[in-house]
Amino acid sequence: MVDTINKYLETQLALAKQKLEAKHEIENNVTQKSKKVAALISKKQKKNFQSNTQESHRTEKTSHQASTSGTKSSDEDSEYLPSCEEDDDVHIPNLTTNSRSKQNIKKIIDDGNTTLYNERIDNWRNCLKSSLSGTYEGDYITADVQYILQGFKDHDVNHELQNGFCVPNYIWKQLYKYQRTGVKWLWELHQVETGGLLGDEMGLGKTVQIIAFLAGLSKTDYGTWGGLGPSIIVAPATVIYQWVSHFHFWYPHLRVAVLHHSGSHSGNHNKLIRDLHSSHGILLITYAGVVKYIKDLLLKKWHYIILDEGHKIRNPNTQVSKLVKKFGTPHKLLITGSPMQNSLQELWSLFDFIRPGLLGTHTAFMDHFAVPITQGGYANATEYQEATALEIAKALKNIITPYMLRRTKAEVQDHIHLPEKNEQVLFCALTKEQRDLYMGYLMSSTVRSILDKDSKFGDPLRARVLVALSTLRKICNHPDLYLYEAHEENEEVDEETFGLWKRSGKMSVVHSLLKIWLKQGHRTLIFSQSRAMLCLLEQHLQSHDFKYLKMDGSVNVSHRQNLIKTFNENAEYLVFLATTRVGGLGVNLTGADRVIIYDPDWNPATDNQAKERAWRIGQQRNVTVYRLLSAGTIEEKIYQRQIFKNFLSNKILIDPNQKNVLTTSTLQGLFTLEDLNCEGDTETTALFKHTKVNLTDKVSSAEKSKVSKSLSFSKRKVEEMRRKAREISKKIKRDLEMASADHEDPREKYKKKRELMLNPPKIEEPETNIFDDKITSTPFECVLSELDIVNKHTKIDYEENLIKDVLNSQEGEVNEVASESENVKQVENTDANNKMSEQNLETIKDYNDDNTRTGEKSKSGKRRYSSECDIENLVKVKKVKHKKQKKDKDKKCSDDDYVLSKLFAKATVKNALHHDVVVGLAEKEKRHKIQEEAIKTAQKAVRAIKFSTK
Ligand SMILES: Nc1ncnc2c1ncn2[C@@H]1O[C@H](COP(=O)(O)OP(=O)(O)OP(=O)(O)O)[C@@H](O)[C@H]1O
């Protein structure tokens, strides 16, 4: 035993030495220029830290206010500070200004100005009249006019629902079935005077459902307002005019005014509030606007307050979160496609708005719900913790289900028939220059001060880490974003080479992609976190004569909607450039069928929101999304973190490759530059090997068939091999059980358990269908998948707790059973409390029933869910597809394969992963684990009953 430990330590020592030597060699190869630049930048950063620290001491009081206001960092809501949405951007020289193609975009006009409003209403009435008489020649197309032009005569008839609720026929008939369910649900909530969260996945028409409901309300004589009273919709700046144009299209009758400096009203804002209030209209306002005008808004009574992209109030401590909760009405709706992004606390904050008190006080919720659920999700959680977490999560689901409606695209695919989506992560090679600069910066005093615990830097470590990470990200994007920081004020910029695509690995990939897509006739959305990067991309597009449009924080809010419309309707624009924050939320960009996410965000929801701009209702073509990552760099770590924010599965965390993943939690892990392993894989592709895009499979199908032939076995042989595998795995299990019964040395036991976890024996997949439809269709499960409960996990606490777990495993058993039964009691009580409110909301039951039915269908038809879950199932999906669809898919595959083969050939892309398969596998593993745990919980319950009778 001592021998083994010694041997192990020796190997580790040898490995560490080898690593150190390799590191020295790399460091020696860093050029003098790179070291000099890094030193200069580090010096500047240090100076900034010092002046910032002094500044922050001086303005401590005011900065505290700003940090809790939630407005400064609220990106696109910067209408009062037009271009400060991406604070840490470098201001690079604008070489593009002279030749910049003019974006001649018209404004959308809201109804803030009474004269203009009356003109619009007259125009609409004329259009209606002329369409009815068959002489329509207007320029204002609305949903009712469109309906008449399609030959229908009943546009002014209402569709009556339960308790006299009337929705105009022309709207009702154009809604998808699930949207009708949504409208009914909103009406149910209205009648019981409560708020709700409409959480449908992005692009399923939440806006339309809300407008249909409000239109219905205005047609229904009900309640103190006798229909629809004056209401407020709060939305991010980019989408407020989208609301205007949706209202003007679907329900032109209603007055919709924007309270924002871009709005059409003139004069005092109080006058607008008064006018709008008396005409029972809709006041559209940004989140920043709420903070600014809260006093005047609270002076009036409002019927509805609706938060679009309501996840913006997920942090309960921001000023805006606190202020929106001050409106007195019970009719509060929150709309978001990403209800929970990071933690359960966020869910609490959202529900604290729609139904204050439902989830208790913040402290009580954190103690009794958030903490146990979070603990149960850790890889090292005990069985008791896991079971408790599961039960509490179920109880939480029961509480919130009546007030939350969420449907996924997969669930409603039979209604909306979205085209296919292919999403891949491309690992791009850094250029030589980038590598050199990256290594140079890693050796700089800023990074050294972070890694050196005894460093004498006075400023907070956190600030230094953030600056260093953002500097590394700049190098990943383009060397010039970094080098420009070292520029002296009067230094000339070399216009020939500044921002040149060849100098950045990712930009080279963009260059190749755009060239190919131009030939293939695709149109592209490019998202970047950074405005400076967007400028470099813009310069590139101009020099290659690509027609493009660009939207970032500097574009006037009232122009944004028309910019989007122009792109969607005008195919000559090949590229739409946007910052992820301004263009990635809420808008419809279905004109594009290709999406490039140039740099990843720490929060996976931000990137997910961005990519959903193209893949939504209205998209006719297959969509391909490429996320670009610089291989081996900080971007890969960010991506891993993104994935693990989506992972709740213990099994994934105890994957043989987990060591690599968990190192991302250490500072050292973040400040390294990883090389490819011996198989040519990056860190992430090695982790998710099974999801790797393997072109050779498709390219040389002839060869493949040769190989498969030579490796084929008879059925009998396969059966025999399976039997053997089963026997072996049983034996290993038996041995392990016997070993634990022998009370062997806990260290030895730990080693064995760890070994087994790292190299699990191949056990056949159980036959059970883990995609149990009930689980899949439960909204809360979808939400849970976005819950981050493993991200704080580190390798060290994993290992330490694993040892503890092994040592405690015997004594824990009895205690667990006792305390668990107590826990079950608590949960039962919560269940009972919530039964009352559930009874009132019949629609939700209808919806769930509906889902179960569709689920059954899918079980036998093997149509849905599977495509998101594993590659094998994907093949099956292909097989059952209609011929034409198959042809489309094949075409898309060959298009995408062609693109990838080109990129691989140029060695600009090192590897590619199927993003949705990576996330889908995690989902599958999660459900598998949950089901296993449910079984264990049931077994324990039986044991508890037996135990209690003894
Ligand atoms: N019933 C419908 N008929 C026609 N078009 C529809 C219908 N429902 C939705 N759409 C269209 O689908 C697109 C997406 O709708 P919408 O913007 O309301 O989605 P969303 O769920 O609010 O998305 P996000 O979460 O991204 O904001 C819009 O272009 C909208 O006009």
From TrEMBL:
Residues 24-97, 834-863 are annotated as: Disordered. GO terms for molecular function: ATP binding; ATP-dependent activity, acting on DNA; hydrolase activity. CDD domains: SF2_C_SNF (cd18793). Pfam families: Helicase_C (PF00271), SNF2-rel_dom (PF00176). It comes from the Eukaryota. GO terms for biological process: cell division; meiotic cell cycle; transcription-coupled nucleotide-excision repair. SUPFAM superfamilies: P-loop containing nucleoside triphosphate hydrolases. Residues 76-89 have a biased composition (Acidic residues). GO terms for cellular component: nucleus. Keywords: Cell cycle, Cell division, Hydrolase, Meiosis, Mitosis. SMART domains: DEXDc, HELICc. Residues 509-662 form the Helicase C-terminal domain. Interacts (via N-terminus) with spn-A/Rad51. This is DNA repair and recombination protein RAD54-like.
